[in-house]
Design goal:
The structure holds 2 protein chains of 2 kinds.
Chain A (H helix, E strand, L loop, with lengths): L12 E6 L2 E6 L10 E4 L1 H9 L6 H11 L4 H17 L5
Chain B lengths: L2 E4 L1 H18 L4 E5 L25 H13 L4 E5 L9 H11 L2 E6 L6 H9 L4 E5 L5 H8 L4 H14 L4 E6 L8 H11 L2 E5 L11 H6 L3 H11 L1 H4 L28 E2 L4 E3 L9 E2 H21 L19 H8 L7 H16 L1
Parallel strand pairs in B: 2-3, 2-8, 3-4, 4-5, 5-6, 6-7
Antiparallel strand pairs in B: 8-9, 9-10
The chains are: A alpha+beta, B alpha/beta.
């Protein structure tokens, strides 16, 4: 994980809270995108909210470490997975 | 820490769960927003006639503010309707803002203004579905209904353009004496294009109670049933095996739809109403905000549901009756009245049930 990397949310995706669930909604149209809805679980929501186009990945990881009792290595691995997923749905640039 | 990506099937299940939660908490989920009462068609049966009209429609800024409030209240679906919503000069500012807010929205339009350029813009703002009123398959009858010469040609072209651009499109018809012989053909047209088609057997009276068109052009329930069988043959294919749908009507409450549970409508002047059919109770969103108006509307629905001498309570026709309190309100000025229109239909249905 490149801890110096700064992530930015894509203007093409908006997050909404509906009845206790946080969902990511693509604002662009393609036949595939219409078929899916992207939901975030609680920890992913916290990570998503920390992505502001300013914080480095290392800072985001530190913030999350304060909240969750998890090893540095395990958190880095999970953050990597999350970023990969967010990139695949064009939610971050 | 995970991000879950739901599949198509899961999406359906996901929203089922979400809607159940919204129903339980009585949070609005799906609403209708009338952006204007202006229209370029002159359909005589349109229920909009006789609506309350204020001096000024909501401006762009006020609509944005309402959309912000709807977003905060976790509304997900919006149906933008009119009049003809595409007649508004700021329509794409509104739709674009709605898209950026993350609403899933449909447009209910007559289709007349949709050309290549407008269709492209509808695609850009990520419209979920364009729902077009398409009441006939011959130019003569179509134009006779809209009272605009050449309207059939333009609307049909609009449907082709939307389809070509991959924008989800649906068409719908109100079944009337004037177009009943064309409904099956409209259905075939929709099937050939692979688009959704729905029919409605009820002509709504105008909001001022005028029912001239209803009385003159309504079809009876037998005629409507015949049309349903032709339009939706798959629904009746295994008729013998089908279990009769249980009536949603209840003796202990008036409203049996989503009014005051997860839905409401907003008129072009910022008044909140039960639904599109009824411009009541006209809570003022501009002075009180969406949230307060929603609370007031729910209370009003609850008050009406508790009506002690509820007119349907002891009626034998209840299970065959599609009575709507809103229609009673329009016809008689009171929610707690029998509707002559629905009584007649319930009697027809009850007779069919007994004698086949």
């Amino acid at each position: 994980m490149d801890e110096k990397r700064v992530l930015k949310k894509s203007p093409q995706v908006v997050s909404r809270k509906i009845e206790g669930e946080v969902i990511l909604i693509p604002l662009y149209k393609s036949s595939d995108d219409l078929s899916y809805i992207y939901t975030l679980n609680e920890t992913a929501v916290n990570a998503w909210e920390l992505i502001d186009g300013k914080k480095r990945l290392g800072q985001i990881k530190e913030e999350l470490m304060k909240t969750y009792n998890i090893s540095d290595e395990k958190l880095a691995k999970q953050l990597d997975g999350l970023i990969k997923d967010l990139k695949s749905i064009k939610a971050i640039v | 820490m995970t991000i879950s990506v739901a599949t198509k099937k899961e999406k359906k299940e996901f929203f089922k769960t979400i809607i159940k939660r919204a129903e339980k908490k009585r949070n609005p989920f799906s609403i209708m927003f009338e952006l204007t009462y202006r229209c370029n068609f002159r359909c005589p049966h349109c229920y909009i006639q006789g609506s309350h009209k204020d001096k000024k429609e909501l401006n762009t800024k006020k609509i944005f503010s309402i959309l912000d409030q709807l977003k905060d209240m976790e509304v997900y679906n919006i149906g933008f309707t009119g009049g003809e919503p595409l007649i508004r000069e700021d329509i794409f500012d509104i739709l674009s803002y709605g898209n950026r807010c993350g609403f899933k929205f449909d447009i209910l339009s007559n289709g007349y203004l949709i050309d290549e350029r407008i269709a492209d813009r509808l695609g850009e703002v990520n419209v979920n579905k364009v729902d077009i009123t398409f009441n006939a398959i011959t130019p003569q009858v179509f134009d006779q209904i809209t009272q605009i010469k050449g309207s059939f040609k333009r609307v049909k072209k609009a449907i082709d353009i939307l389809k070509e651009k991959g924008i989800q499109t649906a068409i719908k018809s109100t079944c009337m004496q004037i177009n009943k012989d064309e409904i099956t053909e409209v259905s075939r047209f929709a099937r050939n294009l692979g688009i959704l088609y729905t029919i409605d057997g009820e002509i709504l009276p105008c909001r001022n109670g005028c029912a001239t068109w209803v009385n003159r052009y309504s079809i009876d329930s037998r005629e409507y049933e015949d049309l349903r069988r032709k339009v939706y043959p798959e629904m009746f294919r295994d008729e013998g095996k089908r279990v009769k749908t249980k009536s949603r009507r209840r003796r202990d409450r008036m409203f049996y739809c989503g009014v005051g549970i997860t839905s409401f409508s907003i008129d072009p002047y910022g008044k909140m109403n039960f639904c599109l059919e009824i411009d009541y109770p006209r809570c003022n969103i501009l002075s009180e905000g969406v949230k307060t108006c929603w609370e007031k509307l729910k209370k009003e629905v609850d008050r009406l549901n508790k009506t002690k001498d509820f007119v349907c309570r002891d009626c034998d026709l209840l299970k065959d009756c599609g009575w709507c309190p809103g229609r009673s309100f329009i016809e008689t000025g009171s929610f707690n009245n029998c509707s002559e229109y629905f009584r007649k239909r319930a009697l027809e249905r009850s007779k069919e049930e007994r004698y086949g």
